[in-house]
Amino acid sequence: MSLRKVVCTFICLSAALFAMILGEEEYKEVLIYTTSNRALSELREMENSYMEHLTSYVKSLQKEVDTLRKYINSVALEKLESEASRVQYVANPLTSLGLLRRAHEDWPKWLKYIKEQQDVQQMGALVALMPHAVDMNEALMGMERIERFYDLRAYDLVNGQVAGRHFDTRMNAPECLVLADFMYNRTEYTRAAEWYRLTWNNIRLPLNPVARGFYRPNREEVRKRFLISRLQEGSIDHIKDYLEELEQHPAVPLVYLKPKPAASVIERGCRGEFPPPPQLVCRYNHTTTPFLRLAPLKEEEISLDPLIWLYHDVISDSEIAALTANLTYEDMTQGYTDNYTTVEKERLFHVKVFEGSGEKLDRDLVNRMTDISGLNAGDHTHLARMNYGLGSHFPEHGDYSDIKANPELVEEGDRLVTFLFYMTDVPLGGATIFPKINLTIQPRKGSALFWYNIHNDWEPHLLTRHGVCPMIDGNRWILTKSLMAYDQMFVKLCLK
Ligand SMILES: *[C@@H]1O[C@H](CO)[C@@H](O)[C@H](O)[C@H]1NC(C)=O
Ligand SMILES: *[C@@H]1O[C@H](CO)[C@@H](O)[C@H](O)[C@H]1NC(C)=O
Ligand SMILES: *[C@@H]1O[C@H](CO)[C@@H](O)[C@H](O)[C@H]1NC(C)=O
Ligand SMILES: *[C@@H]1O[C@H](CO)[C@@H](O)[C@H](O)[C@H]1NC(C)=O
Ligand SMILES: *[C@@H]1O[C@H](CO)[C@@H](O)[C@H](O)[C@H]1NC(C)=O
C-alpha cells in the first residue's frame, strides 16, 4: 500500500465522519447503550428476556422444591446425634453400602440438579452484557444536560414535566439519588441539594426484606448529603433554614442561592430563544441538473452568510426504512467528537459509515447530493448514519478541519460542504443550532440541510460552527456526508 493510500484511508475516514476517532486505546470500548436509541431499545429487549427468565426460574424453582422434598422423604433418614448410634448404623453392611452409594452417586447429582438452573445461567449471560459504570455515567450526563440546557426544575423533571412535554413517568428515589450524587461529584451543590431533597421526599422502603436490602437511599445518609451540599455553597449560620428546607415540599425553592450562571448562546438556541429568522426565499429550483428538471427541489434559503439551504422531501420513507430498519447495535460503532474542531473528546452517538463505493441506495443518495449541489461527490460514498441516545447532543464544532492548522490533511482538501439529511422527526430537543447566526433547525423527516464550511480562499468559515441540542423526545436518525474541496477541482470555481 502506497503512503498516499494509507494517508487517504485515514483522512477519508475522518473526513466522512467529522465526529469519529477510531482505535484509540483509552477509548477501546466497553458496551455503551446510552448513546443511541437503537442500542437502548436492544437493552429494553434484554430486560424482556431477563424478566422472562426470572418468571420461568420461579416456576422451575417451585418444581424443584417439590422434587427435592420427594427425594428427602424417600431417603427418610433420621438424624443420628450420638457417636454410638452412628457406629451402630454403619455396623450393618447393607446400610453402610447404602450410605456409600448415596454419597458417591446421588449427592453430586442432586447438587448438579440444583445448580443446573437453565434460567439462572441465561440470566448470568444477560448480566454479563449489562451496562457498565461508564454507561451509567453517560446516562447521568444526558439527564444533566437535559436539565441544564432547557433550564428545567428538578421537581418538574421528577414528575415527567419536561420542557412542555408531559411524560407519563415519575422518577423514584434511587433514580433521584444517582443524579444527586452525580451533581455533587460535579460540584454542582445547589442542583445536588435539590436532587437530595427529591430523593428524601420519594423514599419508599420496600416491604420485602430482601428488596429492602437492595434499596440504596438511606434516610440519614440522604439528609447528611443534603446538608453538606447546602453548606458547600452556603453558611453554617443558615443551617436551621437548610434543615427546614428538607421538610418542605420539594417544589418550594431553596433559599440563599447564588445566581444561576447566564445561559450560553447554544442553550438559548435550544430553549427556542433566538430571534425569528429573516424571511428568505423559498422556491422550486429546476435549474442545476437534469434530475432537478424532472423532480424540482423544494428549496429554502436559510442563510446567506454562511450559505445554508434547506431542502424538503429529498429522501423517501422507504429509503429511510432501508437505511435504519435493519441496522443493529452490533453493526454500529461509537462516534466521538474529534479534537480538530472541539475541545474535549466526548462520546456522541452510534454511527455506521459506508466506506466503499456503496450499494445502489448509497449511490442514489450521493448522486442526489451531486444533483442538489452541482458539486462532485468523489469516488467513495462515505455516508454516515447516526442515531442519538438519551440526552445525546453534539457540542459546538465546525466541520472544517482547518488545513492550515492541520497540514497533514492537505491531500484531500477541507470539507467544503456538509450535507445533513434528517431521517426522523424529532418532536422535542435534538435541534441543529448555528449559534453564531442565531439559527435553530428542528429535524423534519425527509429534509436535508446543505452548507459551505469554508470561504473561497479555503479559510474556515467560523459562522458555520454548529451543534446539536440534547435529545428529549423522539428518535434522532441522520445521514451525513462531507464533499471535499479537492474533489471540486474541475467543478466548483468559487462561491460568489
Ligand atoms: C461520585 O463520586 C464517588 C467517589 O468518587 C463515586 O464512588 C460515585 O460512584 C460517584 N457517583 C456518581 C453518581 O457519579
Ligand atoms: C438552484 O440551485 C443552485 C445551486 O444551489 C443555485 O446556484 C441556483 O441559483 C438555484 N436556482 C434558482 C432559480 O434558485
Ligand atoms: C429487514 O430485514 C427483514 C428480514 O431480512 C426483511 O424482511 C425486511 O424487509 C427488512 N426491512 C427493510 C426496511 O429493509
Ligand atoms: C487530539 O487529542 C489527542 C489526545 O488527547 C492528542 O494527542 C492530539 O495531539 C490532539 N490533536 C489535535 C489536533 O489537537
Ligand atoms: C443574535 O441575536 C442576538 C440577540 O439575541 C443579537 O444581539 C445578535 O446580533 C444576533 N446575531 C446575529 C448574527 O444575528
UniProtKB/TrEMBL annotation:
GO terms for cellular component: endoplasmic reticulum lumen. It is found in: Endoplasmic reticulum lumen. Keywords: Dioxygenase, Endoplasmic reticulum, Glycoprotein, Iron, Metal-binding, Oxidoreductase, Signal, Vitamin C. GO terms for molecular function: iron ion binding; L-ascorbic acid binding; procollagen-proline 4-dioxygenase activity. This is procollagen-proline 4-dioxygenase. It holds the Pfam family 2OG-FeII_Oxy_3. Residues 360-485 form the Fe2OG dioxygenase domain. It is an enzyme of class 1 (oxidoreductase). Its EC number is 1.14.11.2. Its cofactor is L-ascorbate. Catalyzes the post-translational formation of 4-hydroxyproline in -Xaa-Pro-Gly- sequences in collagens and other proteins. The keyword Acyltransferase does not apply. Belongs to the P4HA family. SMART domains: P4Hc. InterPro entries: Oxoglu/Fe-dep_dioxygenase_dom, P4H_N, P4HA-like, Pro_4_hyd_alph, Pro_4_hyd_alph_FE2OG_OXY, TPR-like_helical_dom_sf.
